[in-house]
Specification:
This protein has 311 residues and is α+β, with helices and mostly antiparallel strands. It has two domains: 132 residues, 3-Layer(aba) Sandwich (Aminopeptidase); 123 residues, Aminopeptidase, CATH 3.40.630. It contains seven helices and 16 strands. The longest helix is centred in the C-terminal third of the chain and has 16 residues. The two termini are 37 Å apart.
Length: 311
């Protein structure tokens, strides 16, 4: 794409026209681009440091990506300069029928103001694969109507701020913290163990609850402080469990384990109050969208921007 502009200047009595040609293309981000990408995102998101972006980009560089899909996403390139970015985080999941599906978290997006006319190139190429389920887990409220006109469907309407320590502790229930070096956990598949390990390496809290009668139940949480609104306790956000009912079952034991870490609340994606938990539901934030053949479920934010880049 070659937009052109002309510049005229007087040279005696004869005007001289100089044609300036600028080449803009949309291409995959490579590992050699990440410094320039971090610079651009730090300019565009003034509340996030360059170190924040570099940490996430390095994590994307090191993680496994489904074959045939971009590792980082796409960028707009103007004569070799990075002027626009859309980060993509691809992951594979196994659904309830045992089928492997591909999900893509449409993460951070920024285009320099002078090149905003070319921003649709990024979004168009980013959503070109019909077999992929695309997720937007952090849309600004003012973008909700726009996202919906693009065919995205809300699968999570808000957040539930729970106080798990107020729940009863099941008889004989134990809570085990899983470190990044744990190789095997009785009762869990190798895939689940690797999931817990991987997220522990990202700074998440990976837990396993069990009793002599049932379990193990795997959980992943991430530290999060609520900065707005009237609820502002030290909090964790639930990143993963097999089913919200399992978190409700283990909430009392998890809550007491978290209090020892100085955490009071656990925030869950929800579509209303969660039966069996004490807390408050809010639809003011936390809405999440998807577009594609495989609707995501609540309580699975593994391998998303929230984990790789942080809250």
């Amino acid at each position: 794409m070659n937009p052109q502009s002309s510049l005229e200047r007087a040279s005696g009595d004869r005007p001289v026209t100089a044609v300036l040609t600028q080449t803009i293309r949309c291409r995959e981000i490579s590992e050699t681009d990440i410094d320039a990408v971090a610079d651009l995102l730090a300019r565009g998101f003034t509340g996030r440091s360059r170190q924040y972006w570099m940490q996430g980009l390095r994590r994307q560089a090191a993680r496994e990506v489904p074959a045939g899909y971009p590792r980082f996403g796409y960028q707009l390139d103007s004569d070799g300069e990075t002027v626009g970015v859309l980060l993509l985080i691809y992951s594979s999941r196994v659904n309830g029928r045992g089928e492997t599906t591909i999900h893509c978290n449409l993460s951070s997006w920024y285009v320099d103001p002078a090149f905003r006319n070319y921003a649709p190139l990024l979004t168009k190429i980013a959503q070109k694969n019909s077999e992929v389920t695309y997720l937007n887990i952090s849309p600004a409220k003012w973008t909700w109507p726009v996202i919906e006109t693009l065919g995205f469907i809300s699968y999570c309407s808000g957040l539930f701020f729970s106080i798990p320590a107020s729940s009863r502790v099941r008889s004989g229930m134990t809570v085990e913290t899983i470190s990044a070096g744990t190789r095997a956990i009785e009762g869990l598949s190798d895939t689940e163990v690797e999931l817990l390990n991987r997220h522990a390496r990202y700074g998440c809290l990976s837990l396993v609850c069990r009793t002599t009668a049932c379990g193990p139940f795997p959980f992943i949480l991430i530290p999060l402080r609520v900065r707005r609104g009237w609820i502002a306790p030290p909090a964790m956000q639930l990143i993963y469990c097999r089913d919200v009912a399992e978190f409700v079952h283990c909430a009392g034991a998890i809550g007491r384990a978290l209090i020892r870490r100085g955490k009071i609340s656990v925030i869950l994606d929800a579509n209303g109050p969660v039966p069996g938990l004490t807390g408050v539901y809010s639809s003011a934030r936390g809405r999440k969208y998807f577009k594609g053949p495989h609707p995501p479920r609540l309580a699975d934010l593994t391998d998303t921007e929230l984990v790789l880049y942080g809250p």
